[in-house]
């Protein structure tokens, strides 16, 4: 090639299309990053998995035993008193929180209070619990 560089001349139309393609790709990439960052924040539920285990070694496994020792049939779901939604499968017990935790609010003026009966948080003023505070972000 005796030291010459191979350059391709583009017509005005080809150059416009190439710039549009690169701009479109950058915008698509940025949109994907935005969706991913929001998805990570939104899907921040606390979950855990417990593998199946027989009550006694050598016993046949007939379902899932929860932390209270109650047997749950395979393919069943239940809610715990600690606000977890659990399911039993042949792989074990999967449990995830069913509530969202407020994180975006004025922490100097307000406090979040968890209601175990409804599995929800309420954000209220520290000095007057009858006044609710605005919440801008939740996790879980």
TrEMBL record:
Superkingdom assignment: Eukaryota
InterPro entries hit by this protein: PSP94
Keywords: Disulfide bond, Secreted, Signal
GO cellular component labels: extracellular region
Residues in the signal sequence: 1-45
Subcellular location: Secreted
Pfam families reported in the protein's UniProt record: PSP94 (PF05825)
Membership in a protein family: Belongs to the beta-microseminoprotein family.
Name of the featured protein: Beta-microseminoprotein
Lineage: Eukaryota, Metazoa, Chordata, Craniata, Vertebrata
């Amino acid at each position: 090639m005796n030291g010459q560089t191979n350059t391709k001349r583009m017509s005005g139309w080809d150059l416009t299309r190439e710039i549009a393609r690169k701009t479109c790709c950058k915008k698509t990439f940025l949109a994907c990053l935005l969706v991913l960052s929001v998805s990570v924040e939104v899907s921040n539920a606390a979950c855990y998995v417990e593998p199946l285990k027989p009550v006694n070694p050598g016993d046949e496994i007939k379902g899932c035993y929860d932390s209270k020792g109650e047997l749950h049939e395979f393919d069943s779901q239940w809610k715990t008193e600690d606000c977890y939604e659990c399911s039993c499968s042949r792989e074990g017990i999967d449990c995830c929180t069913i509530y969202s935790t407020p994180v975006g609010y004025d922490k100097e003026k307000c406090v979040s209070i968890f209601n175990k009966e409804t599995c929800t948080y309420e954000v209220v003023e520290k000095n007057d619990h009858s006044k609710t505070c605005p919440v801008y972000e939740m996790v879980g």
